[in-house]
Amino acid sequence: MSLLYRLLPPPSYLDITAVGLDISDRSIKYAELAETGKGIRLKRFGSKTLNAGVIESGEIKKPEELSAILYSIFKPLKVGYVVSALPEERGYISVMPLPQAEKDQIREAVELSLPEKIPLPAGEAVFDFEFMPQTAVSVGGAKISEDQIPHQDAVVYAFPKTVVQGYLNMFFAAKLRPVSFVMETEALGRALIARGENSPIMIVDFGKTRTTFVIIAGGLVRFSSTVSVAGAFLDQVIAKALNISVKEAETVKKEKGMQNTPENSKVYSAVLPVASAVADEIERHILFWNTHAEHVHGLSPEISKIILSGGDSNLFGFKEYLGFKIGLPAEYGNTWTNVAPLEEYVPEIKFNESLSYSTAVGLSLIALEKN
Fold it and tell me: Higher pLDDT residue, 294 or 336?
């Protein structure tokens, strides 16, 4: 799914090197992968913390400041092209039945149907779509076959034009040209879900300012939701429980996490309600997915496991707590799943750190495909 590539295609004669660029409310992360004789390798990467208020809930509040920061990062690196993520909380996902027709006609049909599916006025959305596989499947004893489907289903992704234009203007001011805008959750899946994996999987991206829940099935993002409960909130509750500064609390969080020991009882008691709230959200989304058959063409309908991503997902004991409470396997995501087997190549990013680079790496994989 490429929301912008069609509108701003680069000249075909250019050998473009595009960097995967992930911009969140509190950080900038980038990664560049390169094809080598030994396979795909990490060429360069980096990150920078953003001050609060530059971006809020995916909306750029201080475009001049953000563009100046990006210019200072990428000008010395001689980077001119990026594949960038658009914020999940500003996007919309919907499944739409479409007629059998040429792609241009289908696109017109999607545009006409958008107001029925997403809460944006007609003509004020930038959108793209991907077709779902149509394969016979049995759900709850009721067989769904291709003969019963006189249409083709597609997953439609849309963003307000104002959001896309805001990011576009900011990038141009930073002397950067976006080759493609991609939904953030698609980039996550591109990095963490192995090619050819069709079973529904939930990714839980536990970051600094938000937690995002993503369901990917058949290689497509089918659902996403975001809550503001995240790592920064853990810092605050630990600081309050121990009567220490937020900066000190962040250190305690990394060292102690959810250790359920007498020495760590105050921290554990402070962190547990947050972890429980995340688990409740996961259970709620899984229950909804598993009990609705609309989504199952060609797929095993039930979610098979949970993959953890994001810089705060490696909180000690968090993975084990979620697996026990939810009753599904929970594992840390492997950011390099579609780069190279770890037994063949170990990138220079430490594993714990790599959990926060999944989106940037996914964007860089997409950049390689565009090149």
Answer: 336
